[in-house]
Design a protein that fits this description.
By secondary structure, the chain is an alpha+beta fold. It contains seven helices and twelve strands.
């Protein structure tokens, strides 16, 4: 009996280790770069409904809105193991910068295996605190999104909200899926497929480098990105769920990145760390 209990304990710990390892594998490209209920329907949205235009214009609408609070989740599935990385914070769309506290999965006993990671997001740069062993306390790791094989659409554990909206600029096959209630707000739900290559060519200059890197770096097994987008009565993107086929050491991993936006106009204070607080050494997982 004692031996069987020990074996079960080892199995639970092993499963938790695999979950954490998968989560860290998705973020491993950063370390490498740092070295040195609604109604449904099938009506097309391109006509009088105007849904396709609303989806494709999501980035411009967010910039006009100014800022918002954000909740993110990134779900990964590989080899029968599923993990979720969660984030919460805010984004200033006019300054094109935001801040998230990103939490990696807990172990089977409910205890966190890693400290929350503070991320400062922008379409071009990513700053991370508490990311990887060997980084001195209080120091930040800075990553150029254009140096990552996926343009940091996945490896940071959260998709930059403005880049996610720019990706929708290439939306095709847009259809209206119904009107739904999202946390008390009536939204129109659209489905479609975005294309990484077309998005890179048509994106605003601030996002073009990251999206082009996702195409050039071949970090994805497919350029097609199916999505669900939820737009409110003022045309603002309230939620977007994008599904990527991410290549982890050559093996495809299904990654679903979801961003929920609310509290538009909220004050979002983000200060970039001074140069003296940027760590330029090797990051170990």
């Amino acid at each position: 009996m004692v031996e069987r209990q020990r074996d079960r304990g080892r199995a639970r710990r092993g499963h938790g280790g695999r979950r954490a390892a998968l989560a860290l594998a998705v973020m491993a490209g950063i370390a490498a770069s740092a070295c040195g209920c609604g109604a449904s329907g099938g009506a097309a949205a391109d006509g009088a409904d105007g849904g396709a235009a609303a989806v494709r214009g999501a980035a411009g609408t967010l910039v006009a809105a100014g800022s918002a609070r954000a909740v993110t989740s990134m779900e990964m599935a590989a080899g029968g193991t599923r993990v979720t990385i969660r984030g919460e914070g805010g984004y200033d769309f006019r300054r094109r910068i935001g801040s998230l506290t990103v939490t990696l999965p807990k172990d089977p006993t409910g205890s966190p295996e890693h400290r929350p990671i503070t991320e400062l997001l922008s379409p071009a740069l990513l700053y991370m605190k508490n990311r990887g062993a060997g980084v001195p306390a209080g120091k930040w790791v800075r990553i150029d999104s254009a140096t990552l094989a996926d343009g940091n659409l996945v490896t940071g554990g959260a998709t930059d909200p403005l880049t996610a909206a720019e990706l929708l600029g290439s939306a095709g096959k847009v259809s209206f899926a119904g009107t739904e209630d999202l946390a008390g707000t009536s939204v129109r739900h659209y489905r479609g497929v975005a294309d990484l290559g077309a998005a890179a060519r048509g994106a605003a200059p601030y996002a073009r480098g990251a999206l082009a890197a996702a195409v050039r770096g071949k970090g994805f097994g497919s350029a097609a990105v199916p999505f669900d987008a939820y737009v409110d009565g003022e045309g603002r993107l309230r939620k977007v769920r994008q599904r990527f086929t991410y290549l982890n050491q050559g093996r495809p991993v299904t990654v679903a990145s979801t961003t929920v936006l609310y509290g538009f106009g909220a004050r979002v204070l983000v200060r970039l760390p001074p140069a003296a607080d940027i760590y330029a050494g090797r990051v170990r997982d």
